[in-house]
Fold this protein.
Amino acid sequence: MTWPFENDTSAITKKLAKRNLKADKSRNILIIITIALATCLIMTTTLYFFASQRKSLNDAAGRYQAIINEVDNDTITKLVNDDRVQVGVSHLLGLVSYGDYKLTVRSMDETLMKLAKYPDLEGELPKSTNEIAITKAFLDRAGLSKSIGDTISLNLGDGEKDYTLCGILPVENSNYSVFVSQSYIENKISEPASSAYIRLNESDGWSKAAIQAELSTLCRELEIQPEQMQFSTYYFSLIEQRSSQYITVIAFISLIIALACTLVIYSLFYVSIARKTKEYGKLRTIGATGKQMKRIVFREGFHLSRIGIPIGILAGAIAGYVLVPQGWNTLMVFVIAAVTALFVYLCVMIAVIKPAKIAAHVTPIEAVRYMAGNNDVMSNSTKVLHRSLSAKNLAFLNFARNRKKTALTILALGVCGILLMASSAYFNSIDPLAMARRSFPYGEIRLELGDYGPQAHNSEQYSELQKSNLLTEDFRESILDIDGVEEIKEYQGTVLNVRMPTGDIEPIVSDAYTPSSQKLLEEYLIDGTADLQELINNNGIIIENGPQWKETFGWDAAIGDELLIEVGGQTLEVKVMGIVDTNIPYGGYDTLFIPLEMLSKIVPIENLNYQFIVDTDDSKWAAAKDEIQKIISPTSSLYVSTLNDWVEAYNEKLLNYRMPVYIFVMFIGVFGIINLLNTLITNILTRKRELGVLQAVGLSSKQLSKMLLIEGLFYTLGVLLLSISCGTLIGYLLCTVFSAMSIFGKVSYHFPTVEMFSYFILMLAIQMLFSYLAIRQIKKQSLVDQIRESS
């Protein structure tokens, strides 16, 4: 506000701010880089999350919402003629083993191609019995170089035959499928039952509950049994909004970036203003007010933001598009850009508040207290008159000369070290082998009844499989005869259609609870009871305390909750009477335990085995797996996996988590390095006269080099101590908290030796490189010119 009796000096403060900017180009470049980098990181992060969410919604649009299994031709006709839905039809003929993977044989129509959102088919779908279409993933895996119209020899379960390749589906990601014609299916099965993939017309934007209610009503009208319909978990995971989770993550990341950015900008302005104390004192002498001094500093911040923020916005928008091009939306980008620009600008203004106050309080008399050509106030330690002027002592004197500036530099780099150490400590503490062992507590090879295991089937399909169960006692004995096989553990259970308290119906692999497993469940019980007889008397079940209940079904599982089990046209009301820890070393699927006596009443099947875990000699498991696959028929519904497969899968999953975190930490480290370079550059520029005098009285080039190297080493050691002390504490807390949450199972803290050693070497290399370049620059100038250098 300008008072009536005060002259308008805004033009003068603008000119002074611009001249300050011109006089301190190196600082300006560092600040612009810092602002641009912070803006880019926040913009990219925000765009990535919101574009990912938009991509999910785009991917859900037009996708099937439910599958109706085992439907006859009359029902298919009714569904196709119903204007409320789109219907795609498929029939799964079976799976054929090809080495250590399976080839899915099925039919598919054009509508299902669209509802499944497959990429455009090269060629066409098969029409005659001798035509097939195949996925590119299978061709690549089998090492086949085939084109449309070529003849291909395959065994689809009825011996090897020649087929004409009429189509190639360009999908990868282990999708090994062969598509046959409907006439081929009818030749194999007289009355084939199909699966109908359905989607409600004009249902984009509907809630999960509304879609499921409408589809359930449709099935009732067409007299389709509820257990025949299975809602698409994938579709509903796409449409469920996760904005609150995204905003929390974005806010956390933006806060860290803002703190790092604010700290660096504050430090850069603080050092700059300390250097210019004499200039500010002169301005005060000729009549400049404290308010005008503040305006000069704030205008500098504004001008630098005006350059850095647009650069960061542009770079962030480009990065966001490259990361998630399918989620791009122009309006969304403009809104995020505006919010990001305002947020970063506020951070810059907050960062310069303290430096502006320092500039406003400089007086002509106080300026005299500053050493000519130096930006540091004489500390108390310089009052000591007698000291050894060794390179080491000289380095320490300058390091400790301005403790505030030194602390800011160490803190800026320390933030990166702390984040690196805490995150790497947690990731290093996660053991993929131990995680895999949760599913393989008693062996190395797992045999499961079903195509890709029981979880790939609904209750009715799995009941049919178990009626002719391949996991028999004779099969068990044949495996025990294989060299290297030591023991086999059997798991009993089946797939049950479970209706949650929320109304969701989901096929869940349920284990038979027997006296042999009671001791283990009682040991890992965290709530309720595991008494087998009490469960039988009260229709009770035990569930695992896993996140899937809440995340997938929105159900906060608790003792006393009632569920409805539907299987084979029968229903049974059960009550949750026990909850066990998710880290229970049970093996199997350990999601839901139901007493065997109760299970046998609703699923009257003699052999309820659904899984064998084979324990082998550690050196012979690979050979044992090959022998097991030899005795399994290629067309049998048995799925083989190994401990090693699971370890590799967990390693890949951890890498997907680790890389984004490390990249983020690396960018935070750039802020610290910018601050370090500013400190070192400022030290050299403002101490040219001092270094010239020292050289004039006998300081050799070797001693000068040693002094600068040791001075840099003090910064590196300070960063290392801060990173180790705070990083160890935070890393240990992360391991404790996430271990309790069972995100990656129980973890034990491991010190990240490799990461911290690498970080220390990197900091040391930067120090040495800078010292080398600084010494070369000093040598180019004569001692007389250095001594004449004015601040």
